[in-house]
Design brief:
By secondary structure, the protein is an all-alpha fold. The protein contains two helices and no strands. The protein has helices at residues 5-151, 155-171. It starts with a helix and ends in a 5-residue tail after the last helix. 2% of the residues are buried.
Amino acid sequence: MRAGAQPRRWERFQRVVAPAVVVPAVVVAVVAVGGVVGARAWFDTRDQLDRTTISLGETREQLADTRVELDGALAHLRAERAAMHAGLGTLDIREGERDAAEGALVTAKNRLAELRAELEAATADLADREDQLDGLDRCVRGVVEGLNQAAVGDLDGLDATLADIEDTCESAGARL
């Protein structure tokens, strides 16, 4: 063999065999890297999906708790509204009673004013009657005194006594 022939074979070998070995190796390397990247992406996606599923479950639990609290708050609100409406009904009744009592008070005050006026009129009438009674008392005493004078025969004294009590008897409503 020739010394120059071997390098040619080697070059030929490299030209024929090298692409056949290198291309599949590159393909295997690309597939391996793609598989690793794909697997990593799949695991990341699966982990993210698990976290999302857990978060969704927690959110659903919070939503259920919130619904229970909302139902309780609505029930409390309904009870408070019912109490408020009952209180408003009672308030309407009490306001009606107050208005009736105010009307009765006004009526009682008017009646009291009427009674006071009647009392003042009766008091004034009583005072007038007392004055008239005092006048009649003085008139009767004068007449008794005059009769006593007449009984003893003192006619001048009788005339003087009757003259003294004549105005008193007349203002008392008695005529001599």
